[in-house]
């Protein structure tokens, strides 16, 4: 259940105002950790086996940093193997806070829109083979920019 919630949070193409989803993940971590002493070991093993290592690492990073999620030392040690490369971490640390937190409903900043668009492109990249990603992203850019009317779409 926790991995499913993390997948929706960290591999979603719509992260707008998703802070509530991060709070849900934080609460699920707390609930399962209190109910089962083996939760963290099973969680780490399952995340690795299902290819959810990076979403798990990012979810825990933001849950710990923003919500104070407690993580046992053994689990923290196991998760170091899931750590993405430094450039990806820096980029995500710039994009995710801007995308997750609610924006001003009266005016959305260009920075927020760009962060959300880049994270949506990342989510598509994770889920699609490269040739489909290029077609899909090109189609979205054409449609959203208004260029589609020039090409009969």
Which characteristics define this entry?
153 residues; 2 domains; globular
Structure description:
With 153 residues, this protein is an all-alpha fold. It contains 8 helices and no strands. The protein folds into 2 domains: 2-82, no CATH class; 86-151, no CATH class.
Give a short overview.
The protein has 153 residues and is mainly alpha-helical. Helices cover 71% and strands 0% of the residues.
How many DSSP helices?
8
| Morphology call | globular
Number of spatially distinct domains: 2
Series of secondary-structure elements, N-terminal to C-terminal? HHHHHHHH
Give the proportion of residues in helices.
Answer: over 70%
Set down the secondary structure blueprint.
Elements: H1 2-10, H2 19-35, H3 39-49, H4 53-67, H5 73-79, H6 86-100, H7 110-127, H8 130-145
